[in-house]
Amino acid sequence: MSFKIVVDYDLCESNAICMQVAPDIFEVRDDDFLYVLNDTPGEEARARCEEAVNRCPKQAIKLVDE
Hints:
The chain is an alpha+beta fold. Helices cover 23% and strands 24% of the residues. The protein has one domain (3-65): Alpha-Beta Plaits (2-Layer Sandwich), CATH 3.30.70.20. It has helices at 17-21, 46-55, and strands at residues 3-7, 26-28, 34-36, 61-65.
């Protein structure tokens, strides 16, 4: 089953916790904005993406099954 990463940028504080968990998927750049490098990663990344969702202090990230 595939999934998509959805970020509510109005909630996101760009604190980079998600980037610490999955740096190949999330990146906070010098402009202090979060970028999703791959919004439809493979199943092998699901556990790390779920951890990023759970650790986000503002709950700005969610995974949507496709």
